[in-house]
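[Q] Does anyone have a clean structure-token version of this?
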Amino acid sequence: SSSSVEGQPGSFFGEPAMAASPRSLPHLHLHCYPRSIPNIGLTSFRRDLFRGGRVCGFQSGFPCHHLLPDGQEDRSAPSPQKISALCSILGHRKWNSSVEDALREFGIGLYPALVANVLWLLPDAKQCLRFYVWALQQEGCRHNFRAKEAVFRFWGHEKLCRAFLLLLDDMQRRQSGVMSSSGLTILIKGYGWAGMVDKAVEAVLQYESSGFHLASYHLNCLLSVMIKEKNYEYFDSVFEEMKRRGTCLDAVTYSLQVLSLCHQGRIDEAREVQSAMSKQGIPLNSSQYNMLLDGLCKSGRPDDAIQLLHEMEERGCQTNVISYNTVINGLCNFRRWNEAFGLLHEMKSKDHAPNVRTFTTLMHGLCIAKEFAQAKNLLTSMADDGYSPNTVTYNVLIQGLCDDDLVEDACQILDKMVAAGVSRDTGTYKPFLTYWGRRKDVDKALEVLQEIKAFSVPCKTCYWIVLRGFCEQRRITEAEQIFEEMLTAGWVPNEKDFRAFCGCLLLAGKLEKLYKFEEDMMKRGYNLPGKRG
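[A] Here you go.
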């Protein structure tokens, strides 16, 4: 029987999430211990008693898993050097075999407290989940509650996130693969979030080799993961293997094939697949046509997209707002504004009410064409027609104005945004930051950076713009402060960052400070580019 998860959303086991930013420093200790175990769809869990942070008494079939507070689970706090060294390896590159090789050559055994600290500092969702999965497979490494919370801060919006993490733990304890149909579905989706296609395929093959039957739903999930990761060769081979085995190909499978072909620009083949679907009596819906419309627009064939849009109703398929938005976006990308607005009027005449995305797409097109007066009028007309511009709508217009050095106009739009009560994000202020960086006014850029920090964690580019400004003006003290803030926020410096700061120290003749900085960075585990001259 399923049991509901008590507490507020946002925490791994239903407890209130830690009130800190996603990149909070790892030394912050969580004082929330689990009160209930969610139903993960594999077996029934009963509510258990927790004593001192320990989980007691899982039902038979799932051995007891002890989740201890950090102080009891690992009494030695990891050194900043170990944490920085791991962050340096994970922060510089995409996850591939070279990252795994570098982690194996790290030469220091992984343990729960070290892994949890690193996970809390990783700013990328996929990289965080991938390191979590990889670390769990290393000898002697088991994840604690804080490690799960670190992953959950990124992936808590996924309904099966808890189930995936619990399933990984269970598989590690049993040293065996997944043993149920629903468990395999969870694994495929979880590995898909991490972009680990090979692991998803491995889980499918292991499940089949254990004598279980693969359902078409499992294979469709696997195909979805491959499309998401743009692994189209793998997709084609799995699809052909399904046909060779005589697996029942349903409407979902064919739709995924159409989507894969459209992403590859193989539009004519996608249309052939749709024709084959019609011949087999598989009804085509607006979603499948919308995939084809998107493919035609992205392949530089907006005229064919317009033709198909008008043919849809003739073929008995109703167009919708997504259909029109797709073609409008394609026309805007080719700077065919008049036709895009023509489709907007056509939408209204057919009772397809445009949405905020429709107007935002047109706004973006007008900004590319530098038709800012018309873009502002469009913003006003949205409110008059009863549509509320959202954060993205305002951000698009602010970005366009700042790119054209119309910063005063952009400030007026920002004031309207604040007055309307629309939430702001980093993308709202980043155009201003870029503008002042371009103008070499680092003090103004710093003011914008402080504004961002008041409500969010600035992105790495924001820090880089200010750091570069201070370095160019040889303002070493301020540059040091920004560099340290960058590290504290969890952003791993790259070669460009190091070279800028080292060059600043060198040009200012601060050789002793330069040597001390390099020594400090090496102690933290960062590999500095080049050699000292």
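[Q] Thanks! Anything notable?
[A] The longest strand covers residues 50-51.
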